[in-house]
Design a protein that fits this description.
It is a single chain. This protein has about 270 residues and is mainly alpha-helical. The chain is built from 10 helices and no strands. The chain has one domain. The protein is about 75% helix and about 0% strand.
Length: about 270
Amino acid sequence: MGFEEKDLSTKSLIAFIFSFIVVELYFVSPIYFIIKYNNRYIRKRHLPIYQIFINLLNCSTYVIIALKGTGDFQNFLTNIIGVVLCFIVILELWLSLSKKNNSNYILPIFLISNCIFQLYYCIFKIGGGDKTISKILTIIINICMYSSLNIGVYYAFKEKKADRIPLLSAILGLLSSIGWTIYSVAVEADEKNDEKKKEKVESDSDIITKLSNAISIIVLVIPIISYIYIAEKYKNNETANNLPEESTEKNKIDLENKEEEEGNDD
């Protein structure tokens, strides 16, 4: 394999372990919304389908660039496990939708993601020794992964319900981005302190990690702030309208009937 392997200091290793755990939790976090859908707390359009598939696309892209020599072993390990977790989430999504005969559109989305995946692979392969294209695309897809959470922000403002925003995913994503930024800074400090690496230029994986996560931190603040704002602004409206989503079985049945009535509009 072509990826580089890093000798991590204690602080770098701690930063890596923290970031690794948090980002893997981020990859499986959409299951929370799938569970809510299964229990009739939300409608189909509130499922984070785009987030789920772009997570898979992001992990696959990082695996490819690691194998092509633009990433490192830590990136490869993190994202190869991420690929497995994303497939598990997709399987759970498919099973949930198939129970309600709503899985017909899953295959087209998956095929589109696969086409984009193949396009990236071709670009990386054709690029040869020039890694600029692969670095730019990797940074873009990483930012897009976290930007997908803002779809929930749209529904939250439209329906005046803060819980339409995947707050758990946003917090995990923010912690992950901060952790990876700290990790890349710690690794850079380790390399500067290493006499054998003083002349070494900053690695491609470090550049990708710093840029993608620095921008992602800004992107991830949006859904978190939006959640706090909407929850505070419309909490009185929700109480007045008596629209709890997680209370009695009657509420679940009412919501299910509403889904069936509006099913053609989804």
